[in-house]
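Question:
Write out your own:
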Amino acid sequence: MAETLSHTERLHITGLHCASCVARVEDALRAVPGVGRAEVNLASGVAQIHGAASPAALTQAVRAAGYDTAADPIPPEAETASLARATAGAAALSLPVAVPVMLSHGTPWLDVLLARPGAMFGFLVLQFVLTTAVMLGPGQVFYRTGLPQLIRGRPEMNALVALGTLAAWALSTTAVFAPGLLPDPHGAIYFEAVGVIITLILLGRWMEARAKGRTGAEIRALASLAPDTALRLTETGQEEISADRIRPGDRLLIRPGARLPVDGRIAVGAGPVDEAMLTGEPMPVDKSPGDPVTAGTVNGTAALTVTAERVGGDTTLARIVALVETAQAGKLPVQALIDRVAAWFVPVVMVLALITLGAWLGAGQPVERGVIAAVTVLIIACPCAMGLATPVSVTVALGRAARMGILFRSAAALERLTQAQSFAFDKTGTLTEGAPRVVDLHTAPGVTAADLLRAAASAERYSEHPLGRALVAAAQAQDLALSAPQDVRAEPGRGLRAHVNGREVQIGNAAFLAADGVSAPAAATAAAEGPHTAIHVAIDGAFAGTVLVADALKPSAPAALRRLAQGRAHLALLTGDTDPAARAMAQDLPDMKIAAGLLPADKAEALRDLPAPVAFVGDGINDAPALAAADVGLAMGSGTDVAIETADVVLTGGDPGDVADAVALSRATLRNIRQNLVWAFGYNVLLIPVAMGALYPIAGILLSPMLAAAAMALSSIFVVSNALRLRRLDLTG
């Protein structure tokens, strides 16, 4: 029984050249039973198929459409080198044809040479031979790909080039070997045009390939950060092994200045580790035994022994690369319009070429002039620019975002983020450092401060919540012995219950304790009104005391929110903390709506009261409902896995400034795409009529096929070059 794919499969497609190619392959893949959705990215050559189908069936469908698949993507360098060789070969064969033709106008000695008996015919035969060699050699890709697609009734860009050059070649060949069939055979020889057209188009593809190679440079750079080898410690010493042989549990020696090959924890040693590739922060982070480290980060000045935990495709670096590649393979909603146009573009151009030929012949013009006008229409049309307009911008933008520590789960999230009218923020760990510390304790009569802190910290011993970690850190700072909690039951946004040494401990806000019949005294309630978070504790159903915890605002938060406010966004703070604590923190922030004391479900509900579309930024488990309910969810990468898995955008550095950067990059990307689309559609709308001869009755202007080839090549190069501007765009301006 054939193996079937489920959910998502990625195929590397070869032979894609234009938007029409993309439309053909997508239609072929969607026709495979079990495929729900298929998206092909022209810039990367990757097809992303969603559903359940046999990989063999998908490959067969691609080949039936006239294309092929590859196990691995063709390296940009290899494609560029191949096109460079083809361009050089075409130029070498075309120059002996084109240069004498251009020099023959106003070059007396050449006119005398060609006036000798048989010289002109010999020169024309040489043109025929060299031009035919260009077509069968460097230019064969147009005929090998374009003509079969034409026969299948699915013409694409190669078919346009093939038809145009074959028509000009056939007209010229007839003029040389059967001149009696034409009224003016001397005006029907265009061998030099055929050679130059093929050379220029190949040159354009080479320049386009070079530019496209740079669109994915950021992701290739990320993927290359993990070293290929590692030093594994054994009972007898150490051995150098390939990174793919590392297994969880292996102990690795990481020398100073070396990159880490896997995710793991430090077993021996301490020192700084540069995590800029992950967080974007330039300052190294001090690490000690027990601390986690990540593949691709750079060890500092001390040798470290690391125990491997996640290897290969499970490392954080590999997951980041896979996430960005998946997003790059996706499409923006605007691409649907382009796909519909692309499906009809090439057939329409072919019809326009026939109309052009008929119009010129109907006007009594020589057949050769009508043929050349039709050829010019075929050559100047550029479906490539339309097909590249969106994916190259998305590819560049997502790659740059990844290098900044901003990970988009889908291309569509780029567009949704630009539409957001409101930005709602969680407080703890999002706008604050997420590392609160205990600042005071208020105990009930008969309860010591040590007993209160020991009971609370023991109950929170394994908690991932920042407040729970603050309790544990405070207890450890006082060298209090903690016990293992039993029967832990947490209620996100409210508190938790646990048994510690046989005693029931309840920790949470006043409402959480009140639900169990425990009332906080007036003194504890008054303490909770300050600019901090109050954690009430009950032991065996009796109020034991209140722990006051404070958290510092992240330094970048005020500036980040001001940038968003300058964009006329509505700002809101949604927190489970008390209203006084929330308002005290917000004093240093731009004017924003504050909703405090919220449960997780309340945060999701509160989003409905904000002007839509709404973006929500959070980091904790209790933020997951709001992240899912928002039009765009942004999760701090420093937060929990649940929050990150729910979000549309992951900010690996945990910096609020990344929110403003993500918005600026998204808006710049959509603006860049609009520029590309205006150019791509405007180019074809304006120049195809010119190629048909629209200006000839007015100004006597008839476009040359060689100029048409140059314009077509430059059109695609313009689109790719414009997209590459996103790599160096100033996002703070």
